[in-house]
Amino acid sequence: MTTPLDSPRLSVIIPVLDEAAGIAGLLQSLQALRHDGAEIIVVDGGSTDNTTRLAAPHVDQLVSAPKGRGCQMNAGAATAHGSILLFLHADTRLPLPASMLIAQAIDQGAAWGRFDVRIEGDTAGLGLVALAMNWRSRLTGIATGDQAIFVTKAVFAASGGFADIPLMEDIDFSRRMRALGRPACLSEKVITSGRRWEKHGVLRTILTMWLLRLRFFFGANPNNLAREYGYAPRQR
């Protein structure tokens, strides 16, 4: 791992858990950003495969934290040196000019924002799903983690960061950010894996996610929702 001599403007924070199959490819795709001064931080939630070994040569910081994206992303933000934080899922790839686009959005007055998304995969309907996600986000001001949320470090700290919940941490965060202002909706696309759509089917995944979000909106316990989604919350 290397430590930048000067504080970077952008810190890319990647929460991971057993991502050995793809972590090296993701981090290699981020090396151009790193060479341009961005800081790359991987936050591991207790992987039992080779994720951390594969990640270590390609990052500026390798952090350990309790399992859970919200908790892991908060841990990464706490160690970040950049004035802008970008939260990136391990199965999502950034467009090449990402750092420039984010800097422009912040310089133009945005406190936070996200990218449009393209879902990668051969399953029919993924293009329409991505189109719906992007327009829904524009209309509602709500961003999902798949869209690579970015925010100034000062605003993130003032907001209290992500809620330490096992599911919907991105929705909760977006709601609180929206109270400060609408997100910068960048039309350039991140490319995210369609693996969950291909595993469960497009229609079933859409219905499941909408039902979970509706129940979350009406106050359902995120731990119960996570279990129904197939994600086991950590024991506290």
In percent, how much strand structure appears in the residues?
Answer: 15-25%
Terminal Cα separation, in Å?
Answer: 31 Å
Secondary structure category: alpha/beta
Main β sheet profile: 8 strands, mixed
CATH topology: the name is Spore Coat Polysaccharide Biosynthesis Protein SpsA, Chain A
Q: Could you report the average pLDDT, rounded to the nearest whole number?
A: 90
Shape: globular
CATH class: Alpha Beta
Tally of extended strands?
A: 8
Tell me the Rg in angstroms: 17 Å
Number of helices: 11
Strand order of the largest sheet: 3-2-1-4-7-6-8-5
Specify the CATH architecture.
Alpha-Beta Complex
Integer count of domains: 1
Helicity level: 40-55%
What's the CATH H-level superfamily name? Spore Coat Polysaccharide Biosynthesis Protein SpsA, Chain A
What pattern of helices and strands is seen along the backbone? Answer: EHHEHEHEEHEHEHHEHHH
Which residue ranges are poorly predicted, with pLDDT under 50 across at least 5 consecutive positions? 1-5
Descriptors:
single chain, 42% helix, globular, alpha/beta, Spore Coat Polysaccharide Biosynthesis Protein SpsA, Chain A, eight-stranded mixed beta sheet
